[in-house]
Specification:
Blueprint: E1 2-4, H1 6-15, E2 19-22, H2 26-31, E3 37-39, E4 56-59, H3 64-75, E5 81-84, H4 87-90
Parallel strand pairs: 1-5, 2-3, 2-4, 4-5
Protein name: Rhodanese domain-containing protein
Pfam family, one: Rhodanese
InterPro entries: GlpE_sulfurtransferase, Rhodanese-like_dom, Rhodanese-like_dom_sf
Length: 99
C-alpha cells in the first residue's frame, strides 16, 4: 500500500481533483473534515462499491483505521489505495465543521 504525508495530500488537493475517503465515524467527520473528503466509515467499508480502477486516498484520525480500510479494500480487489500517514491529527489545512 502506498502512503503519503498530510503535506503531500495538501499539495495534491491544491492541484488535482482526487478521491479522498474519510473513514472515521460520522460524528468525527462532522466535527471537522477536509472539504473534498467523502465520509465512508470503517464499520461500513465492506459495502464500499466504487470503481476499482480509480485511485482512493484514505484518511482517518491518525492513519491506523485508514490502513485497516486499505487492507479490507485490497482483499475486495482495489489496487490503487493510498493511506494518509498521520491522518487528521497531522492535518494543518482548513476543515469544515458541520456540528
Amino acid at each position: 500500500m502506498k502512503e503519503i504525508t498530510t503535506k503531500e495530500l495538501a499539495d495534491l488537493l491544491a492541484t488535482k481533483d482526487i478521491k479522498l475517503i474519510d473513514i472515521r465515524t460520522p460524528i468525527e467527520y462532522l466535527a471537522g473534515h477536509i472539504k473534498e473528503a467523502k465520509n465512508f466509515p470503517l464499520e461500513e467499508i465492506e459495502s464500499f462499491d466504487l470503481p476499482k480502477s480509480d485511485r482512493y486516498y484514505l484518511i482517518c484520525r491518525s492513519g491506523n483505521r485508514s490502513g485497516q480500510a486499505a487492507a479490507i479494500l485490497s482483499q475486495k480487489g482495489y489496487t490503487d489505495l493510498v493511506n494518509v500517514q498521520g491522518g487528521m491529527l497531522d492535518w494543518d489545512g482548513a476543515t469544515i465543521n458541520d456540528l
